Hints:
Strand content: over 45%
CATH topology: Maltoporin, Chain A
Organism: Mucilaginibacter gossypiicola
Structural class: mainly beta
Pfam families: Plug (PF07715), TonB_dep_Rec_b-barrel (PF00593)
Domain TonB-dependent receptor plug: 74-160
Shape: globular
Largest sheet: 22 strands, antiparallel, barrel
Number of strands: 41
Number of helices: 4
Radius of gyration: 25 Å
Protein name: Fe(3+) dicitrate transport protein
CATH superfamily: TonB-dependent receptor, beta-barrel domain
Subcellular location: Cell outer membrane
Helix content: under 10%
CATH class: Mainly Beta
CATH architecture: Beta Barrel
Amino acid sequence: MNTLYKILLPALFICCADVAQAQHKSVKDTLQLDSVIIKESRPKHLPNISGTNIFAGKKTFDIFPDAGKANLANNNARMTFAKVPGVNVWEMDGAGLQLNIGTRGTDTHRSIETNIRQNGYNTNSDMFGYPENHYNVPFQAVSEIQIVRGSAALQFGSQFGGMVNFKLKEGDSTKVFGFESEQSAGSNRFFNSYNAIGGKVGKVSYYAFYSARTGDGWRPDAAFNSRAYYANIKYQFNDKGSIAFQFSRSDYRQQIAGGLTDAQFDANNRQSTRARNFFNPEINIPALLFNYQFDKDTRLEVTSHVLFGQRNSVQFINTANIPDTVNASLKTYNPRQVDRDYYAGFTTEARLLHSYKLGDLKSSFTAGVRYFEETTKRKQKGTGTVGSDFDLSLVKDYGIDLRLHTLNYAAFAENMFQVTEAFTVTPGVRFEQINTTNTGVIVNRTVPVSYKDKRNFPLFGTGLQYQLDNGSQFYGNFSQAYRPYIYAAVTPADQLTIIDPNIKDSKGYDADLGYRGHISTAFSFDVNAFYVYYGNRAGTLTQTDASNVTHLYMTNIGNGVAKGVEAFTEVSLIRSFDKSAGSDLRLFNSLSYTHGRYTSGAISQNGKNVSLVGNHLEGTPDWIDRAGLTFLSGHVSSTLQYNYVGKSFSDANNTTFNVTGATGIVPSYHLFDWAFNYSFLKNYHLTANVNNIFNAKYFTRRINMYPGPGILPADGRTFNIGFGVKI
């Protein structure tokens, strides 16, 4: 990003803010244009209290997916999260089969360091031992996305990456039966079908959808077939309480084209190095939600859900410079490796919020408990067939066969003290206990594993908020967080790896200080500074034992700090001057600077321990900027978006080049996206979307494991068009 761009863009927004100041009035949620109501659906921060949650003093966002502002048909995360500064997106595929996001130095890989929720309950496969998010809801089913940054650790869980909650659509309560459907088709034989029903009959309301997405993929050998199901039946047994049963399922089968070396990427970024690799997760989530409003000041929410399913892969695993060709001695392809995980987890969370008078003002107290139990059965390094289709059968048993079990108890409490009408203080505490058990065999079933550990974590935090006027407020928050070490950190990969018996969970804290608000409907802003301390990051060192044998030693390798600034601004270029205008043109910018560096530690490199001090945190670009123009006029909404992501390093060593492509620099990139929606005849709409308009050649990640190893090219230019109906 050049210096002129950094100077001119903020200056433009300052000028726009000065113009908008003259239009200062209260925010409205809708505009009336020639008998057509257009929802503003602007991003905003969450209210001080929502349900049983307290958000006062926290860095939050509330965003509303719209067809004219994002490519919802293929779950385009960089557009959907465009107005949330600092969201780093790993683009594994152009079909949106996975949600891979991270912030402030956290890992993007299947959002592994983010507390991902749907309607308030977790969807991560195993919250403590293997917290990757294999489940992904179609964005067409989402009505609202609630985001809380690192300060989410006290109320929702310990993750440094904060909490993201997808609130799904509900049926129209004014209808007995409603129906919506959208069919989209596009390049590379892309097809997406979203179909839903909903309504209300007496005290029972319901909503259900079925979504299917197929295509050949942008690269050869990258075909996919994805399905998602959801049903919600809610019974309002009186004016105070309700109970709802929900069931969600997502499954897909994806062919993996493999990683590339730098030379291969430079020669042809669209080529495939693997034709026999497949990935297949299947996740089921039944849930029961109970809500009861005892009176206007007291509310109870109890959620219980089960997550069960599996994650399967069959692949020829080797670096990209080793081709998958017929073995001359075998006269066939080499056998593939089969890996399978089976998940079975149960979680119950109960939360109570009570508001009370403290002096002449009303304060609020929330508290809750959580019980979590999860068993993961991990079977890896099985010898599969020499075939080319998706086949999980074995010719030789699994080399790794583990039973991984986690038991977690947690309790939290926060109190929002309304000190004055404008000033709130919200201290909080959380206590967690984790019991981890790991048993089984590794190294071709020759080495037994037996690991047990029990840990307790008290966490503390405080939020401050000062309402400057009706349109703006200062906020600040400090909250402790931790990341429990995952199963891979306490399971030796081979005989040469030794696990530190005193390995510790990563611990640290997150701090925010910001200013946010709006000026009428003309200008919105949220600017904050942040500081994240991430201690005891896990990794490997090289050690030589008393017998002069060299081992890799899995331990805590060092501490890291991510600090910087996040800024969001949006200005109405037409309505700033004419609030009665029948159309609007909005300019937004979402800019973040993250200085993520190791402050201490060392890691193994070519058999030597090398200092990490001053190295970039892996996968953490300094600059991320997303800017766009949104046009609204009657039946039309359309957004043109610019994306810039700075360079980053793929490993803690900050390797600049590796002949295999598995490690090295991830270069910066620029690209443009476009979304369009046209509504007509009240119940119908047309959509059109183009990703990567100018066909930029780029990638967002290198990887030394599944599904590479090597460079994973991002998609070039793709498009889709759709037709929808809602009655």
